[in-house]
C-alpha cells in the first residue's frame, strides 16, 4: 500500500485585506505575502507586532484609539469592517492557517520529506485555527465562527494524520499501528463530517460544503478500509485465519462504499481506489480460498472483534504571538509600561486554568460516554429500522421494472434450455447407436474366429472401422465434458427461474416474498423506552456542548484591562478572585450535567438489556431481508449469462450433432462391409 496514489487535500483561501489606518508599507507586506514559507514567517511577525501594539494603545472595540479595520469574508466575498485591532489580528491569524493549509496541500507527498513537510503544515494550520477559536471573538465574520474554525481544525488534523499514515506505510510499520493511525484519520474526518452535515455550518459554507462533504465522506470509508486491511494483515501474522477473512471482507465492503461516494472525484482519487481495490481484493480472495480449502477456521462476526481504536499522533502546533524568535524585536517597547498588560496576561492565565480544569472533566466524561455508546452500537435513527420493510428497495424495483418491459424473459430462457436438451439427447442417442454398432461388430468378429478355429486368420476388418472407433471415443469424451457443463447450466437455471418469475410478477408478490419483523406490544414498548433514553443521551450531549460554548464565549469576552489599570498591584489577587466568581453558576450547571451521566447510562444499560432479544430478532430479519434482496438481484443479473451459455451450448451441440450424424453413417457402412467379409469367409 506504500505505493498507493495520494489522495487530494482540502486547502483554504486567504482573506483579502481592506482598510486599516496603519503604516501602508507594513500593511502591504503583511497582507500580500508570497505563497511560501517566507509568507508564513511574515504573517507571524506582523501578528506579533499587532499584539504588542494593542497591549499599549487602546485600539480595541469601543476604545478611544480604535480605527476601522476591513477584510473580505471568504464565503460571501463581502467586506466586513470592525473598529477593533483584534479583528486585524484574527484575520491575519486566519490567513496564517489558510496559507499553511495551502502549502500542505500543494506538495505531491511522493517523497518522505514531502510527507513530513505537508504533515507539519497541516499541524501548523490546525494550531493557527485553534488559537483563533480559543482567543478571539467568533462574531467578527462567518468564516471565523466557532463552527467553521472547529471544522477547519478537524480537517487539518485529519490531513496531518493522513500524511503520517502515508509515511507509516512507506516505513512498513507494524500492521496494528498502521491500523490505529488509519482509524484516527477516520475519527478526525468523522468529526469534520458531523460539522459539514450540520445545517447551520452548511449554510455558512455555501457551495463548497457539498464538495468538501463528498470528499470527506469518501475518505472516511476509504481509510476505514485501510484500517481493516491492516487489521487483517495483523490477523494473518498471528495466524488467525478466520479473523483475517472477516477483516479483509470488511475492508472490501468499506472500499466499495468509498468507490460509490467517489463519483465525480478527480482521476487521482480514482487511481488510488483502483490501486487499493487490487490490493484488498487480492488479499480477500486469497484469504477466503486458503481458509475454505486449508485452514477451515470459523469466520467470526465483525462486531465480536475488538474495535480499532485510533492513535492520534498529530496535534495542533501552538501559536505564540509574543515569541521573540518569531516576531523579532518589539517595535513598540518604549511606548508605555507593560504593567497593565502583564496583569491582564496573568488574569488570562487564570481564565485559561479555569477552562482547562472544566474541559478536563468534560473530556473525561465525554470519553466514557463515547466508549459506552460505541460498545452499545445504538443509533437512535436506525435502532429499529422498521421503515425499510414498508417499501421494496430501489435496487429491486429497478430489476422489476426492467423485467416488466421484457415479459418473455422466463419463457425465452425455458425454451432455450429445452432446445439445448433436445440437441443434447439427439447427440447422446447417435453416440449410443455408434457404440452399439461397434460392439456388435466386435462380437460377430469373435464368433467368426471361434468357428474357424485354426483356419488361417481372416483378412483384416475394413480399415475404416478403427478410425470410426477412435473418432467415436473422441466425441464421447467431448460429450461427457459438455454433459457436466449442461447439468450445471440446468441446475443454475432451476435455481434462478423461480426468482425471475417472482420479479416479473406483481409487486405485491415481491413485497410479500421479503421477510418482515413481527413485534409484540411488549417489544414495541421496549423500543419506545430505548428511544426515549437515547433522546435523553442526545439532550445531555447538546446541553453540555451549549454550556461549554457559553463558558468559552464568556471567557473570551471577559476583559478587565480597564479595572487593572486602576487597581493596586497588592489587590490584584483579590480582584482576580472576585472576577472569577462570575463563572460559578455556569460551572454548577456543568457539574450537574456531568453528574447526571451516570444515571442516564445506567438507565440505558437496563433498557439495552431488555432490547437485546428484540435487537437479535430484528437483526435476523434484516439479515434475511438483505439476503433475499441480494438473491433476487443475483437471479436477475444471472439471466443474461444463462442465455449466453445456453446459446453457446446449442451452438456446440448443433456442431457436434452434425459430426456425430456423419460418423453414424460411416459406422453403419463400415459395419455392413465388415459383416459382408465375414459372410464370404463362412461360405468358402
UniProtKB/TrEMBL annotation:
<dbReference type="GO" id="GO:0032456">
    <property type="term" value="P:endocytic recycling"/>
</dbReference>
<feature type="domain" description="BRO1">
    <location>
        <begin position="27"/>
        <end position="369"/>
    </location>
</feature>
<dbReference type="GO" id="GO:0045022">
    <property type="term" value="P:early endosome to late endosome transport"/>
</dbReference>
<keyword id="KW-0963">Cytoplasm</keyword>
<dbReference type="Pfam" id="PF03097">
    <property type="entry name" value="BRO1"/>
</dbReference>
<dbReference type="Pfam" id="PF13949">
    <property type="entry name" value="ALIX_LYPXL_bnd"/>
</dbReference>
<dbReference type="InterPro" id="IPR038499">
    <property type="entry name" value="BRO1_sf"/>
</dbReference>
<dbReference type="InterPro" id="IPR025304">
    <property type="entry name" value="ALIX_V_dom"/>
</dbReference>
<dbReference type="InterPro" id="IPR004328">
    <property type="entry name" value="BRO1_dom"/>
</dbReference>
<keyword id="KW-0967">Endosome</keyword>
<feature type="coiled-coil region">
    <location>
        <begin position="530"/>
        <end position="557"/>
    </location>
</feature>
<feature type="coiled-coil region">
    <location>
        <begin position="424"/>
        <end position="454"/>
    </location>
</feature>
<keyword id="KW-0175">Coiled coil</keyword>
<dbReference type="GO" id="GO:0005768">
    <property type="term" value="C:endosome"/>
</dbReference>
<protein>
    <submittedName>
        <fullName>PTN23 phosphatase</fullName>
    </submittedName>
</protein>
<dbReference type="GO" id="GO:0043328">
    <property type="term" value="P:protein transport to vacuole involved in ubiquitin-dependent protein catabolic process via the multivesicular body sorting pathway"/>
</dbReference>
